Amino acid sequence: MAMMLQLIFVLSTLISVTVSIDVFGHFGISVELDIQHPVPEFHDLFWVFNRAYNVLKYSKKHKESTFYSHYKGRVEFNVETYRLTLKNLQKTDSGLYEAKASGNKVRVVAEYRLSVLDPVEAPVLTHQLTNDTCNITLTCRGHDLSINFIHYKETFEEKEVTSPGGVTLSLSVNGSTIICNHSNTVSWKTDVMEMRELKRLCADEGSVSPFAGVSVCLLKTVLYSITLTLMLSAVITVHIRERLTKSS
Predict the structure, then answer these.
(1) Percent of the chain with pLDDT over 90
(2) CA-to-CA distance for 7 and 15, rounded, in angstroms?
(3) Which range of residues forms the domain containing residue 191?
(4) Number of folded domains in the chain?
């Protein structure tokens, strides 16, 4: 019987443990933190930052809310739901937030781990043609991440890379649109390119250029040779005319 009571006590303790919830927000916005568990009878309710700094104190008896120095003007508190709203988030707001109901005992009724992130920068999607006009290199760049892909005619492969800080860069296709997406947990920005732009750059299989198969080096050599021949012909012509004039 004693073992059964002990087991029930352990299970009830495990069930009542508050699990920290990860919350993400970006610089300058607001975030709402709700109570996670039923609130028992209490005298005061506190929202606490990093288990050391009071954000606010709510007195149930006097129906009064006290906001502490760093958070004055930047927090709102709902006296009915006990919800905490943090406004104009700063990077220094990142950390652990707990709601504690103080009565006969102190109980944690909410626990959040907030991460304040910077919004991502707009990515850049570029293309570059190689010697083969149907062979196009696509480059998707965002911050310190980069993706390269060689597009040949109708082929396309989706790619994605993620930094240790949780920032993701992806190159994908949606219908006729190529999308370079730069994102983190709280924001995303894109740069797009229409597939028809690549098709316009890609030469039709049936059309052949007059210089197809001729290297640039060979073409330059031919042009230099023609120019040199014309110059020599001009010099010889002038020389012959001068001799004919002297003979006359």
Answers:
(1) 49
(2) 12
(3) 124-201
(4) 2
